[in-house]
Design goal:
The protein is mostly helical and 290 residues long. It has 13 helices and no strands. 30% of the residues are buried.
Length: 290
């Protein structure tokens, strides 16, 4: 006979935990539910003040308008142009910053010198400097090299601003990797880069997923850097969304604004939905522990 594990008794502490989790879930999900409901309502229902009720005649007209016809200033093309701008900015910035952070983190983990910890300390200090304080010097530098308000400029800014964070996470991960792996590769004649690319990177799936998700979320949801450095032809969805909400032409349309906000958030939700279990696995495996 195979013994089965018994579930712990449902005592007051466990009931209190379940109540806390349910209340927390409602607290965080209720605003999202309100946004979804009102994005499906026609303006006639919203004008009646029924913001907290289910839509009587739900439709996706506001979603279509937010996607194709909502005005973001002088242009009325919705958030659709911003989607492609966000994709072409986010994808290369995430890939470059993640791989560069992995290389930096591995190099610092392998650097057996008293200067290694000081270098890591300086990188960590950079994380605590708000990037708002570095905007003006960054603008001057990019202006001098001809990259200000260009596509390459905004990708470069996201990569540089993300490197301290990605380097710290990867360094903390690689410190826990046994040195015997790197030494065995060197004994076989592999160079530093060959060891990193062929041996270290393939065993870094957990931390790669964690860092890539964090970078994707941060870059996709960025507003300030996109507004300043992207230029008018490369404005991301977040800037387009703000322009729709703050557009002064005609009456305000909360249903369109909420639909545009949901469309902007969908890519990050999709990323978490398909890679969430890998993210949790990376956290549980100690991917962000030092």
């Amino acid at each position: 006979m195979i013994a089965t594990a018994q579930r712990p008794p449902l005592g007051p502490a466990r009931i209190g935990l379940y109540v806390f989790l349910v209340v927390s879930a409602i607290f965080f999900l209720l605003p999202l539910l309100v946004v979804i409901m009102n994005s499906l309502k026609p303006m006639e229902e919203i004008r009646q003040g029924n913001l907290l009720t289910l839509p009587v005649n739900p439709n996706f007209d506001s979603w279509i308008a937010a996607w194709k016809t909502a005005c973001t200033g002088l242009e009325c093309a919705g958030v659709r142009p911003g989607l492609w701008n966000s994709i072409k900015i986010t994808v290369p910035a995430v890939v470059i910053s993640t791989l560069a952070g992995a290389l930096n983190g591995y190099a610092l983990a392998q650097w057996k010198s008293r200067h290694a910890n000081m270098t890591m300390l300086l990188i960590t200090v950079g994380l605590f400097i708000p990037y708002q304080a570095m905007l003006y010097p960054t603008v001057k530098i990019l202006s001098n090299v001809g990259l200000f308000r260009t596509y390459l400029g905004i990708v470069f800014v996201h990569v540089i601003y993300g490197l301290p964070y990605t380097t710290l996470l990867f360094r903390n991960f690689y410190v826990g990797v046994p040195d015997e792996i790197s030494r065995a590769a060197r004994m076989e004649g592999a160079s530093f880069l060959r060891t990193f690319w062929s041996i270290i990177l393939p065993i870094s799936t957990n931390i790669l997923v964690v860092v890539a998700i964090l970078q994707f979320t941060g870059i996709w949801n960025d507003y300030l850097l996109g507004l300043i450095f992207a230029g008018n032809d490369n404005l991301p969805m977040t800037v387009q969304l703000t322009n729709i909400v703050n557009n002064a032409r005609g009456a305000a349309n909360p249903n369109i604004n909420m639909a545009a906000a949901l469309i902007t958030a969908i890519p990050t939700l999709v990323v978490y939905f398909f890679s969430g279990r890998y993210f949790v696995r990376g956290i549980a495996a100690g991917a962000v522990k030092g």
